[in-house]
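Notes from the 1:1 (GR / supervisor)

We went over the backlog. Supervisor wanted to see one worked example end to end before approving the batch request, so GR pasted a single chain during the call. The sequence is below; no edits were made to it. Supervisor asked that the structure be written out right there so they could see what the output format looks like.
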Amino acid sequence: MTTLTHTQFVDARGNQRWNCFKSDKVAEISYATIQGKDCLVQKFRNSSVMLEAPHYRPKLYFTSNGPMPEMAGQEEPFPEPDNQSKMKRSCENAEHVGLFTPNAGQHFRDEQRRRRSQYDRGTRLAALEEFDYETAMHHFYGSAMR
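Structure output shown during the call:
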């Protein structure tokens, strides 16, 4: 990506709604606090996000100027975790910020299912619960819900 293509992307997508998602949210673009492939790999390889469904995980791709140019555009395997204590801490932190359903008893799980917030998105479990919730509501209210 060149400076010119970066600027063109920001001009085209920054502060714009992404209508394909049926949302009023506006795309906000800012510089990342972590720069460089090596630093990003090191951050995410020991992150709880790597325990999510594969389509939610960060991806790596071979590039034409990398060690295997013939593989350019194909997905590169993500390195395995190399620090179990960081991985454990990441999982514990994720539980406290509302990204995961607590593992505490049926009562907590039932209350979590009834609670809806913007932070309930992004995990495989949340997606399954959303599907179950939508199915139940559709069954209860019929097609008038749509």
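Supervisor's comment: The longest helix spans residues 124-141.
Batch request approved.
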